[in-house]
Amino acid sequence: MISRAVSRLRQGGRDSGTSLVLALIFVVVGAVALGAILTFADASMRTTMAVRQQAINAAAADGAAKLAINQLRNGDYSYAGGNCFGTAPDFAVPNFQPAGANPIAAVVTCEPDVTHSATEYGLAITPANRPGSAILTMSPLGSSENGIRLDVAGGRTLRVHGDIYSNSTINVVQGSLVTNTAVRARGTCSGTITSTPAPQCGLGSGPDPRSVDPNYAAPTAPATPRTVPPCSGANKLVTFSPGLYTDLVGLNNMMRSSGCRDSIFHFLPGTYYFNFPGSGEWLIDTGYLVAGTPTSPLVAGTAPSIPGACQSPIPPNPIPPGGWVRPGPNAGVQFVFGGQSRVRIKAAEVEICGTYSTTSPPIAVYGLKTAVGSVPAQSGCVTATPYPSTGCAVIKSDNSPNSAVYIQGTTYAPRAAFDISLNNLTGQVFRYGIIARTLLLAPTGSADLSGPVIEVPDETNGAGMRSVIYLNVYICPGANSCTVGAGLKRLSVKVALVDPSGIPAAGAREVTVYSWSVLRG
Question: What is the C-alpha to C-alpha distance for residues 195 and 178, in angstroms, rounded to an integer?
Fold first, then answer.
């Protein structure tokens, strides 16, 4: 009887049992899927809330930093001393969320950067230590050589900051010449030249005080004979001492491509006299020549950053975010060329920095007009005219991919020619003016001509003070007040306060933000 009942169940209830199994499977799968969806939604919601909280924290830190900067703008702090925020070393920002919102507070700490802060950050530039022109060429009217010859590859524009005066002609073969002030020439001008006022050419031979050689005094430092320091192998650091150098063969053997290749040749601050025998061409065909006090330690095997490897006698404009190290007394050099001595820069980078003075221009390169001790005045091919068909240039740079020359200071050689191919240029070549017999400039297509290539600084009384400060912002979510110990560091800001008068003036201070770094977490 039981077997017959089971048989009937198997025959009549076959579909019902299958449906039950399938239903159970759907329930289990649905439960798992729903659990996964709910888990994903929960995780997504948590992530959204975390991101939202990060945004709230970042906004709070941002607002606290701006409040602190405004407090500094309206305060009288300077790096010379005292607290950044008046009587308090830190700047407390109590809860500043809207009413009803979760509270959040912040505190801002201040760390003065004394290294990059400075008084008289502009230094005094006056007629006593400033050449009258950015370019003054002395080749006389009627000469068969140009006073200035410019050939800009690609027809681009070469910019000058300051007056330009040629006692003969100005010939712009290709491209254009632009200055922010005046252009004057006793002879003719050709090519595209722009100035304010318009160029004044063909002035003739009448008296003009602006055309006169300033006759800067010859150096008085002793011409102590020096030997060329030894160097063997590549990537060395070679140090030179001030004095008289006559060993042309030794210099050329060291600085040729098969010599101390890719080395740094550091000329310590002081006066260097060069009086080479014969034709006297010193060839710098490799490495990096840095003359003056380094802005950072020079390390063998590490290429220095040129320009900027030695302390300039005036600050860059504008002052870079990293700040500017004001040069100390006697921080620079003076390269003095006598006789037929001259230098040619091939596959090398050269930077020569003069010394700032309140009474005379910071002359970095000097061409002798009269003898100094055993060093004769410039003569021979250096003074032969007309260049370039006759004679030779006291400084010449080749059209080589690795050729670069930067003179941070006044160049004074009124009896000599300068022939510069501006290749891979990244800054001013003649900074603080040049007085030469004739000047040839040929920027290549790779030169950066966005700023002045030659400049003389504007006059300024030098009054000014810059205070560089690091601000660190800590926030305390869920609190009405905050301390460094309890807070989360969420923002770092580097800011500079500039007081043009040299005295902090609340509300009239210039503020520059160098960096604004958000910290996640």
Answer: 6
DSSP per position, 140-172? PTT-SS-SEEEE-GGG-EEEEES-EEESS-EEE
Helix, strand, or coil here: 229? coil
Q: For the chain, how are helix, strand and coil distributed in percent, rounded to 5?
A: 15, 35, 50
Q: What are phi and psi of 119, to 5 degrees?
A: -95, 155
Residue 216, token pair as written in the block:
């800067």
Report the C-alpha gap between 520 and 490 in whole angstroms. 7
Pull the structure tokens for residue 325: 């190290």
Q: What is the structure's pLDDT at 459?
A: 85
CA torsion sign for 490, 492, 498, 502 is positive
Q: How far apart are CA 47 and CA 53, in angstroms?
A: 10
Cβ(405)–Cβ(350) below 8 Å? yes
pTM for the structure as a whole:
0.70
In the structure encoding, which two tokens stand for residue 442, read together? 């040929």
Q: Check residue 8 and give its pLDDT.
A: 45
pLDDT at 206: 92
Cβ(468)–Cβ(112) under 8 Å? yes
- For residue 219, what pLDDT is reported? 96
Q: Give the Cα separation of 252 and 201 in Å (integer).
A: 43
Q: Are 413 and 436 in contact (CB under 8 A)?
A: yes
The DSSP H or E segment spanning 43 is helix 14-73
User: Could you write out the DSSP letters of every residue in 391-410?
Assistant: S-EEEEE-S-TT-EEEEESE
**Domain coordinates of the chain in residue numbers?**
49-119+463-518, 135-455
Mean pLDDT by 10 residues, the chain (521 residues): 45 56 60 55 53 81 93 84 82 83 92 71 82 97 95 92 97 96 97 96 95 96 96 95 97 92 97 93 96 95 92 73 69 97 94 94 97 96 96 92 90 97 75 96 81 88 79 93 93 87 76 86 62
Peptide bond into 504 cis (omega under 30): no
DSSP 3-state assignment of 56? Answer: helix
